[in-house]
Amino acid sequence: EDQINDVQDSWQEVDPDEYSYEELVALGGVVGTERRGLSADTLASLPSVTYNTKDMQDGNTEQYV
């Protein structure tokens, strides 16, 4: 457990604003890449459903996908 706390403490001391470009590239190599969201291919493969709504006041119909 002490080893885990030491690692967490050392990461809290990292300030990327003070790093050179080369140091940031090296840090990225150690830490890895974070990806957010799904790829376009994965999104395209998901099923979709169309909902029709009707506005009761003016009778307009709208579609939502």
From TrEMBL:
Protein name in the entry: Uncharacterized protein
Protein source organism: Aegilops tauschii subsp. strangulata (Goatgrass)
